[in-house]
Amino acid sequence: MITARQMIALLQSLNEGDDEQFYAIALQVAATEARRGRIEVATELKSQVDLARSKKHLAPRLETKKAGSVVSFAKPRGELQGLFVATLPKINLENLSLTSDVAARLKNFVRQQRQREKLREHSRTPKSKLLLIGPPGSGKTFTASALAGELHLPLHALRLDAIISRFMGETAAKLRLIFDQIAIERAVYLFDEFDAIGGKRTTDNDVGEMRRVLNSFLQFLEEHNSTDSPIVAATNHPELLDPALLRRFDDVVIYPLPGPKIVESVLRKRTSHLDSRSIDWTLVAAGGLGLSQAEVVKAADEVVRDAILSGESVLREADLLGALHHRKQLLGLLDSVK
Fold it and tell me: Which of 67, 134, 197, 232 has the most CB atoms in a 10 Å sphere around its CB?
């Protein structure tokens, strides 16, 4: 049911000719109805807003073609503007170099999302909340893009710098807006550097406001997800997370540092246009152990750039080993100044 405050805001936006604000308030009402379990009413409200927007051509849209179809979505407007960055990824899980366990978990997640209607026919819901844990550069953010690509959905990457505020109640209010959006628009929602929100409530540097933010987030995660939108949280510091969060996620995927097979796979992919017949890949892969996937990629790209500028078409083992060693040196230097 629409509140008096929402009615005032609707009339104000109507008087000011602010159609987008009018639509935003209508969608907030739809989200409220969805949380109450009135899915048909919420869906009808959203479809009416979409119809009004399409007639007036007010909402700027991004489009991409996939398998002969066009997927489009509106950029964030009104109160949502600045809270997330919307993109349409074109990659999939095949673009990632993953361990067999991580690949299996992600494929299962995609399978359940693709067949969510079948699950609901049997009174079951698909997995929709995923926590990714791993060191920097292990592919967590890339995974969110790949999931969006697999499901042909937009990726909404949340900007924590815009969400977290020093003013009491403002952060929770912004999270409420995000979860209202989740209830009305199907997309992949990425909360990167998640420990900024989900830190333990018992830490020494804890403040009352962040406790309230975490409690609000826990409550929002428990709400009915009428769109089955994937909510992906990623962190480099699982030790900082509040234990209560782990129970709210449908699955937790842990990304280890890449082993020899993955190091080799990444290097081969990044240097595939160069002649590598003389490379001892076992030796080179061993030289990349201890590096994240992102660091291995940087090493490979450095070798490729040098080859391009030198007019070389042959990949040299010494160049790869040297680039990998250089990345390790840089990481050691950074660790020494922490």
Answer: 232
CA 86, distance to chain mean position in Å, is 10
Residue 29's nearest CA partner among 220, 183, 216, 171 is: 183
- Please give the model's pTM, rounded to 2 decimal places: 0.72
Do 268 and 168 lie in one domain? The reply is: no
What does the alpha-carbon distance between residue 287 and residue 266 come to, in Å, rounded to a whole number? 13
Query: What b-and-e string marks burial along 163-179, b requiring 16 or more CB atoms within 10 Å of the CB?
Result: bbeeeeeebbebbebbb
Task: Of 30-34, 203-207, 294-298, give the lowest mean pLDDT range.
Answer: 203-207
Of 56, 72, 99, the position where a domain reaches its end is: 56
d(CA 294, CA 231): 23
Number of domains in the chain: 3
Q: Are residues 111 and 233 in the same domain?
A: yes
Backbone Cα Rg of the chain: 23
Sheet of 251-254, strand order: 84-87, 155-158, 188-191, 231-235, 129-133, 251-254
User: Are 245 and 293 within one domain?
Assistant: no
Higher pLDDT, 300 or 63: 300
In one letter, which amino acid is 185? E
| CATH number of the domain that residue 110 is part of | 3.40.50.300
| 126 and 243 both lie in a single domain | yes
pLDDT value, residue 328: 92
153 and 183 in a single domain? The answer is: yes
Question: Is 218 in the same domain as 331?
Answer: no
